């Protein structure tokens, strides 16, 4: 059955058609998968999709997966995420309408984790689908909430500077079981406050370019909820943050475009000398620290 039947179920749900024949062959669990930047068809899940056990299906969510003004991207992050949210929400609701007793796993990677996490946030406590039927698995989530005051995702750390790349801060999941998986060097989901730990922030930028934003993605194997930070040797040597109660730039400057722009330009200039040369030359590909 797998994705082919999932497509039939989704199409039936979107058309408002109840299909008893399809319902009789429902998977016991459906995994909804959202890829990251430049992965509009969630190909990052292909390896594990090929080995899913009987009774577990998957549905890939197609969307633009774009972050303009990233070079060559036609669609802004905000519009791309909104497109993904709408598509994922329709697909999940259609499947639940056809297979109301089946469990649902919503998973996203990177930009796809924004999409998946925002849908999980909206579904939590809504009553539209019972919370005990839903779980989430997010990899490299830019909106990941920091634990015990530790670093969260970059969208909770830096303020909005570029139109169309809105930093929306953290969000919760209520009673839903959601597992956040994040590499320690991945500056997308583990972004140190640059005011209190500039070298730690630089390490996250370096890690993003040097492979630490990659994950062993297998949402069917993940259980429970909570936050997992995978320890790694740093790319840029750094220590603990200054023991000062200084808020993040997001908390200080978001909504004040001039101060936000000046602050982000200052962080970009300050980390340049400590980054590996290959990373320094690619900062124009890091849209959260715009070069101009």
UniProtKB/TrEMBL annotation:
Q: Does the keyword Transport apply?
A: no
Identify which top EC class this enzyme belongs to: hydrolase
> Chief location of this protein?
secreted
Which InterPro entries does the annotation name? AB_hydrolase_fold, Cutinase/axe, CUTINASE_1
For this entry, the protein name equals Cutinase
Could you say which protein family the record assigns here?
Belongs to the cutinase family.
EC number in record: 3.1.1.-
According to its UniProt entry, this protein's organism is: Nonomuraea mangrovi
What does the UniProt entry say about where the protein is found?
Secreted
Signal peptide residues are 1-23
Functional note = Catalyzes the hydrolysis of complex carboxylic polyesters found in the cell wall of plants. Degrades cutin, a macromolecule that forms the structure of the plant cuticle.
Please verify whether the record's keywords include Secreted. Answer: yes
Keywords, ordered alphabetically: Disulfide bond, Hydrolase, Secreted, Serine esterase, Signal
Q: What's one Pfam family here?
A: Cutinase
